[in-house]
Amino acid sequence: MQTQKEFDTKRLAECLISFFKLMPNENQINRFVVEIAKQTLKKLEAGRGVEISTKDIFLEMFPNGDESQASSKLANLWKKLPALYENISIRLAEHAVNEFELDAYARPEKLESEGGAGNSVRYRLNAIKVNKELIAEPNPYREKIPHDIEYRAVQDFQPSIFAKLFFGKANEAVGIKKWVMIFTPIIQSVFYLFMVVVLFYALKKQTIATISFFYLSLFLAAIWLLSYQVIRFQRFTEDRIIIASEYFMSWKEFSLLQEIVTVEDENGNFLYKKIQLTKYVGVCPICNSRVELAKGEPDFPRRIIGRCYESPTEHIYSFDRITKLGYALRNYKLEAKSGS
Ligand SMILES: [Zn+2]
Questions:
Q1: What distance in angstroms lies between residue 24's CA and the mean position of ligand 1's atoms?
Q2: Tens of pLDDT along 152-200?
Q3: Domains of the chain: which residue ranges?
Q4: What is the 305 CA–ligand 1 centroid distance (Å)?
Q5: Residue 314 Cα, ligand 1 centroid: separation in angstroms?
Q6: DSSP assignment letter at 145
Q7: CA of 335 to the centre of ligand 1 (A)
Q8: Which H, E and C letters describe 156-201, residue by residue?
């Protein structure tokens, strides 16, 4: 029979695994935490306690790795744990409370037996109590609207250095910065328009025989840049959400959104608008991989859609910024979820 303590550890481990499906699995630190949770489940199943050895984790994470380096490799990963938890603790707490009805979330702890030799290090999941009053409610639309996927905002994304300087820690632009963001595309457009006009007159003087291909390509480039700017500006102001400019994303990142958000007081009165960088992710109901947002083109022009990491052209879902819900855009017959 399971003891109460073991039952909790099992739920805590399952919650952790489910939460990390929303996170990039190419990060070793993420895989390390998931591996501890998976090994914990295995041990519980076999009735062999809840402590995981360095070797258990290492062999799963690096099947062809050199075992003599196990302790140092895991020790290095361990150093990244505080930063990871600083990033995820709020969302993980929400996940534990809202999706698993727990009042705690799991965080690995390290047990070093006397002597401190590498091989005697063991890991265990520790329960961190959650203050439920600080936890956001679950998505209110989830019960009302049938859906295939639910997206969640994440904080641990990778803005570019430029975006970090411009938006600051909160990843948002208010006041003067907001207007800079709105007017920069207009100023750029005016500049490109000027180029188009100047080059048009330069080209007009030439005949087919003397035409400069240099001017001609500049002219076409200027037209392309101008229309790109105008379309982006129009979409941002009309749709209020677009995939963020490449200048704001680091090279590994491709699915940040630039969103106009209305800030209200607690009575629902309008206070101000701000521009925010956000990232939403979901879990693919077909293959369980991570779903990130991307442009809908070419099949779904002007839409932002969710694309599965494993099958980005087939496992695709709609995205609604208000409900944070979506349905399958290909004809997969998925059983609609309402609630979980
Ligand atoms: Zn998928």
A1: 14
A2: 988 778 888 888 888 888 888 988 888 888 888 888 899 999 999 998 8
A3: 4-136, 161-183+226-326
A4: 13
A5: 8
A6: S
A7: 15
A8: CCCECHHHHHHHCCCCEECHHHHHHHHHHHHHHHHHHHHHHHHHHH
